[in-house]
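Please fill in the sequence for the structure shown.

STRUCTURE ENCODING:
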């Protein structure tokens, strides 16, 4: 029983990283209709930046905040390249983000090398019902829940959130009322960069991060985002947590080598489920 609880807690912590990466993809997609495959690169960039800032003597807190800001800036730059030119179709923007993600490998290796990096998180361990786990997992879970609450408030209660939602539902009508769809799209990329950067900052104390760790994050994040149809952050959170727990159980009771396969199977199942629901929804609308 204690082993199961430990796997659940660690799985929730890992799933939060997938949920944050996936939510960044959701925010970008619902505004621009672009699937951003550079999302995992923001996490790696923020993680590497944090390790450098901490090594230079900057204290915790300041280093992490600056790294998340770097992730947001990187997201904005990716957005400028991907959608900055009016009329760029979403398919072309998707290819652009994929190319930028590959280019990020070269930049990260050039700056930080190819060796894994990590840094300390919340010190100590917690015992709960016989299970023992790092206290940092509680920080990951707590921060993720707060961030998703802020996202819910942003889209439901603020003018900026309403403008983002307007661009998502009807770009033409948004332009008619004076909303700059391109500006809102760039803002969504900046939010996505910040969310990806936050995922990297939170997960690095419990996971060695290398320049290609974005593959794990983007597969897991995309699987979580697919569960929410690439438009619902709340379901993305659920999908990320389910994926994290599933991977932890597979690693604990089976073989950790199959964790990626778990993400791919979940993604495939979610896509089949979404495809099955679409005709039913169309029939109801008719």
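FILLED IN BY: designer on duty
SEQUENCE:
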């Amino acid at each position: 029983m204690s082993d199961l609880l430990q796997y659940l807690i660690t799985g929730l912590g890992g799933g939060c990283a997938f949920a944050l990466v996936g939510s960044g993809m959701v925010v970008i997609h619902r505004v621009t209709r672009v699937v951003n495959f550079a999302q995992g690169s923001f996490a790696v960039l923020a993680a590497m930046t944090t390790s450098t800032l901490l090594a230079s003597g900057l204290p915790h807190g300041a280093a992490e905040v600056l790294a998340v800001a770097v992730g947001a800036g990187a997201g904005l730059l990716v957005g400028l390249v991907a959608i900055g030119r009016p009329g760029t179709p979403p398919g072309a923007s998707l290819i652009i983000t994929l190319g930028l993600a590959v280019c990020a490998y070269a930049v990260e290796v050039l700056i930080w090398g190819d060796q894994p990096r990590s840094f300390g998180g919340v010190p100590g361990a917690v015992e709960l019902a016989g299970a023992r786990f790092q206290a940092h997992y509680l920080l990951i879970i707590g921060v993720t829940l707060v961030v998703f609450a802020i996202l819910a408030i942003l889209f439901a209660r603020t003018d900026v959130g309403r403008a983002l939602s307007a661009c998502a539902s009807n770009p033409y009508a948004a332009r008619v009322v004076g909303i700059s769809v391109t500006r809102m799209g760039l803002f969504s990329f900046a939010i996505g960069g910040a969310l990806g950067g936050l995922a990297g900052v939170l997960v690095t104390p419990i996971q060695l991060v290398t320049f290609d760790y974005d593959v794990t994050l983007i597969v897991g994040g995309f699987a979580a985002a697919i569960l929410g149809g690439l438009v619902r952050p709340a379901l993305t959170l659920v999908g990320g947590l389910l994926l994290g727990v599933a991977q932890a159980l597979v690693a604990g009771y089976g073989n950790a080598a199959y964790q990626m396969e778990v993400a791919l199977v979940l993604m495939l199942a979610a896509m089949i489920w979404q495809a099955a629901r679409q005709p039913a929804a169309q029939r109801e609308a008719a």
